[in-house]
């Protein structure tokens, strides 16, 4: 078993960290088997697909890499609690995307919450990209910025029109891509939930609902207290 390795990218003008952790889980094939045994459903939100809750055993062996990374990058020395974790399959074809799924999104506006995206597909079915909102310059949308961001986004739609039903790829009239992370089996990325981001999904992807052939990730959320 290879040991986890961590590298850090700092995003754009705000310099927020994104940790890229290779060899993340001790036994990723077990996680794939777990994912194949579950029932998936649409849980709402921004995710363009179906999800299933992970078992608590998913977290076995992850503390050794997560704890020092959280302390080093996010300045946290107290408790870190998982508040949700899901196996996720991207299944929504481009022509069925809701408006909020055609632009970058945040998971939560709180700065003390982190997201982890863990890639569990053997082949390249798309990584994750991070963005800057052009008209506000925001790369993070915090609670303090949220109302202003929503208002500015509405003005963007009025000026440029709503994006066509497709997955975002690279720069647009409203957003500038500031970082892209390519997928790799058993790679995970960790970042603040308030960072603007989206999955890098090709519009001609297969969007399979089978964990064996589809774009399988495990997505977790951590609250720092």
List keywords for this structure.
single chain; 225 residues; Jelly Rolls; seven-stranded antiparallel β-sheet; three-stranded antiparallel β-sheet
Write the layout of secondary structure elements.
Elements: E1 5-11, E2 16-22, H1 28-36, E3 49-53, H2 63-74, E4 80-90, E5 113-119, E6 128-133, H3 146-160, E7 175-181, E8 188-192, E9 197-199, E10 216-224
Antiparallel strand pairs: 1-2, 2-8, 3-4, 4-10, 5-8, 5-10, 6-7, 6-9
Description:
It contains three helices and ten strands, in the order ββαβαβββαββββ. It is α+β, with helices and mostly antiparallel strands. The chain has a single domain, classed as Jelly Rolls (Sandwich). The strands form two sheets. It has a seven-stranded antiparallel beta sheet, covered by helices on one side. A three-stranded antiparallel beta sheet has the order 7-6-9, with no helix packed on it. The protein is globular and about 50 Å long. The mean pLDDT is about 95.
Q: Can you give the helix content as a percent range?
A: 10-25%
Strand order of the largest sheet: 1-2-8-5-10-4-3
Shape: globular
CATH topology term: Jelly Rolls
The N- to C-terminal Cα distance equals 32 Å
Our count of domains comes out at 1
Number of helices: 3
Would you count the extended β strands for me? 10
Counting helices, strands and paired strands, the structural category is alpha+beta
SSE order: EEHEHEEEHEEEE
Average pLDDT figure: 95
Q: Profile the largest sheet.
A: 7 strands, antiparallel
If you compute it from the alpha carbons, what radius of gyration comes out, rounded to the nearest whole angstrom?
A: 17 Å
Low-confidence stretches: none
Report the CATH architecture.
Sandwich
- Content of β-strand: 25-35%
Per CATH, the class reads Mainly Beta
């Amino acid at each position: 078993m290879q040991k986890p390795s961590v590298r850090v990218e700092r995003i754009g003008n705000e310099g927020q960290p994104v940790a890229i952790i290779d060899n993340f889980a001790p036994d990723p094939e077990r996680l794939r088997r777990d994912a194949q045994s579950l029932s998936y459903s649409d849980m709402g939100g921004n995710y363009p697909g179906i999800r299933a809750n992970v078992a608590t055993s998913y977290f076995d062996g992850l503390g050794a890499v997560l704890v020092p990374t959280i302390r080093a990058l996010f300045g946290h020395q107290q408790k870190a609690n998982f508040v949700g974790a899901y196996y996720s399959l991207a299944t929504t074809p481009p022509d069925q995307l809701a408006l909020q799924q055609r632009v970058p999104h945040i998971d939560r506006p709180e700065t003390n919450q982190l997201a982890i995206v863990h890639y569990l597909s053997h082949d390249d079915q798309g990584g994750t990209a991070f963005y800057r909102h052009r008209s506000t310059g925001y790369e993070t949308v915090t609670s303090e910025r949220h109302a202003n961001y929503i208002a500015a986004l509405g003005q963007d739609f009025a000026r440029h029109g709503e994006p066509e039903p497709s997955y975002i790829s690279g720069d647009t009239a409203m957003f500038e891509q500031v970082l892209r992370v390519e997928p790799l089996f058993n790679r995970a990325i960790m970042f603040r939930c308030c960072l603007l981001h989206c999955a890098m999904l090709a519009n001609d992807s297969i969007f399979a609902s089978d964990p064996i052939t589809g774009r399988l990730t495990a997505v977790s959320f951590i609250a720092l207290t």
